[in-house]
Amino acid sequence: MHAYTASRTALSSPVAFEPTLRQPLSFYPASAEIYAHGEKAGAVYQIEFGAVRVYRLLADGRRQISAFHLPGETFGFEADTTHHFFAEAINATGVRVFRVTAGTDMSRQLLPLALKGLTRAQEHLLVLGRQNAIERVAAFLVDMAERQGGLRQIELPMSRMDIGDYLGL
Questions:
Q1: Which residues pair with 96 in a beta bridge?
Q2: Where is the Cyclic nucleotide-binding domain (predicted)?
Q3: Which fold has domain 2-167?
């Protein structure tokens, strides 16, 4: 677990996404789909309030959650023109949707955010592949605390089943 927590400090410094044009807020009730696997991509989403889970349904019907996103975070990055995952509001959630066009100021501004997401995904793979159940839960709680500003009391908007699907338990 040491390798995981030691590398976490590099991610705790925020990378801001500040688009020049403010987009209207889109509201999603709990469990509402934001986008689906196979749908056309081409936008990124910034959470104003609430929380989002990003997941894939496996061939045997199980769900694997790949990420949780919290207020201020940006998600929805795709390498091509279709979504490879589902995104769903965990609770009442407000997001701003930004259409992305290659070569624009916004696309250059999104690169650090996409790389931060890649680093977070790589660390998540390390947790899943090399830690036991207790270490996975501990690493998850540390991550959530750091993402919420290091508070002593953290909010967990997701269910225990969500956490289990995220940690592979």
A1: 25, 46
A2: 28-76
A3: Jelly Rolls (2.60.120)
Query: For 128-156, what is each residue's pLDDT tens digit?
Result: 777 899 999 998 999 999 999 887 889 99
Residue ranges with strand state E in 76-167: 86-89, 93-99
Cα angle value 162/92/122 (rounded, 5°) = 40
CB contact set of 44 (below 8 Å; sequence gap of 6+): 17, 74, 75, 76, 77, 97, 98, 100, 110, 113
Q: Which of 144, 40, 156, 39 is nearest to 91 (CA)?
A: 156
The Cα-based distances of 5 to 40, 41, 123 in angstroms read 36, 33, 9
Q: How many residues does the chain have?
A: 169
Q: Which two tokens stand for residue 158?
A: 């997701």
| Contact between residue 48 and residue 98 where contact means Cβ atoms under 8 Å apart | no
Select the more confidently predicted residue: 47 or 9: 47
Nearest to 124 by CA among 166, 73, 87, 70: 166
Residue written as token pair 């929805």: 76
In the chain, where the domains are located: 2-167
